[in-house]
Design a protein that fits this description.
homodimer, 301 residues, Rossmann fold, N-(1-d-carboxylethyl)-l-norvaline Dehydrogenase, domain 2, 2 domains, 10-stranded mixed beta sheet, 12 helices, globular
Amino acid sequence: MVYAVIGTGAVGGYYGAKLAHSGQEVHFLLHSDYEYVHRHGLQVRSCDGSFHLLQPHVYNDPALMPQCDVVLVALKSVNNGLIPSLLAPLLKPDTLVVLIQNGLGLEADLQQQMPSLHLAAGLAFICSAKTEPGIVNHQCYGYINIGNYSCHEQERVEQVVSDFRAAGVDAHSVEYHEARWKKAVWNMPFNGMTVVLNTRTDLLLSNPYTKQLIYEQMLEVIRAARACGVENIDETFADKMIYNTENMTPYSPSMKLDYDFGRPMEIDYLYTRPLRMARAANCPMPYLEMLEAELRFLEAN
Amino acid sequence: MVYAVIGTGAVGGYYGAKLAHSGQEVHFLLHSDYEYVHRHGLQVRSCDGSFHLLQPHVYNDPALMPQCDVVLVALKSVNNGLIPSLLAPLLKPDTLVVLIQNGLGLEADLQQQMPSLHLAAGLAFICSAKTEPGIVNHQCYGYINIGNYSCHEQERVEQVVSDFRAAGVDAHSVEYHEARWKKAVWNMPFNGMTVVLNTRTDLLLSNPYTKQLIYEQMLEVIRAARACGVENIDETFADKMIYNTENMTPYSPSMKLDYDFGRPMEIDYLYTRPLRMARAANCPMPYLEMLEAELRFLEAN
């Protein structure tokens, strides 16, 4: 299969480079790093083994890219308005588009604009950062779950999982709705709270007040998920997420990095959209509504 | 009547000085400013007319003070554990103690320690600051409401109100529970939110997200007040508070000043205690529970 990566940053750059390094044909769309990567290649400095792609297929214009079988989209979701025009030149009738992005409602919104698209969600569990042009620093974790949203051929989704595994990436095929909501159980409390209180995951959990608050926020997401039809989740999942996070390396979530570096925050898909889904299911999330308002204030001031 | 002031700061210094300036006998207990005020007197720089008390009655030890008819307590409530020992030398059997402090539950807690005390609440609506030793800067507003908590002689409360008025302070006698809760409707949202988002009242209200959040937080307090037996309050009071604040000078509440200057915040009586009362009345305040947790985190980190 021929792969494309739209958004060759800390996440898209990592997963695309792993596939290319394993021998897959991967075409990378770049923006600010194009000149550098065209000359010097793409480096992955990784806890799992570093490598250097000397001459990757790189582009600064999607019109110059070939049609592909699989497109991995790893843009920040604040730029999702660009996706239809970026995708158009890459599509064959059966191209699978995998949105490796955080949040809820991403696939539904894109599907509405492009009704015949074959879509899947990519849930990336990875600590990585692009610290310099053309260099992806992969600190820890790295597995990816793929949930089929609207692809008629589940085999294609399984093939992507299989290609990732062959590339040394721990990958699994998962149920779409359950996977997106389960990721939100972690993402919604920690992304916003680290921004509002200017702190890290470990400090939030070492204070009894914020630990309890994070736990209550997780329960809000779990209840909303159940109200939205996800059955395979209950309150024990919050205990598990708290336990896992306490045993993780102290961590700044992506929204904290975005805020600290003056980049736009992904409030729409991490908060506004899931909050709307929860209200529509008659299961509002008051703590997370408040967190959204605080983030909207910080974004504007 | 003979007055004492315990806590001669921005609030206690202002109200005590106004009474003394009008001819009342007022005995001031001072701590860090004692030497300065003993030598140079107490200055009030006020939007309503400045004045200088050249030789006020000042003390640095309550044991040296005379017994008084009225004691105005204007300590920060984080120091309320000191009140019984500070009060003891000043009390006659019928002394009225007025707690000019922010929060809920202050009188109940002190009454439990000193069951025979005659207590009232002083609700101060004032912008003032002690910027230098012995100098109170009074920027705007200044009225005070007195609510009788446990004084058998309502006449004494009325006499205090009358003395304030004779001193040029707009004062009123009010119903205790209603007055404390109504003040909390403003205090609970604005004190904490200006700290957590490092901002001012006017900016919180000019952002549509935080304006709505502040409004919802006010409704939480109003519902809790009603659940706790305050009948003369409804949701229109929130509209009034929002409108008044939009027409106020941009303002940093006392907790914001405390946090900015590294002083302890009055979280116990402004949040923890009223939150407990609301839960006990089966009317929890989730937005304000979250705000308390955020403040506890900032206090500790």
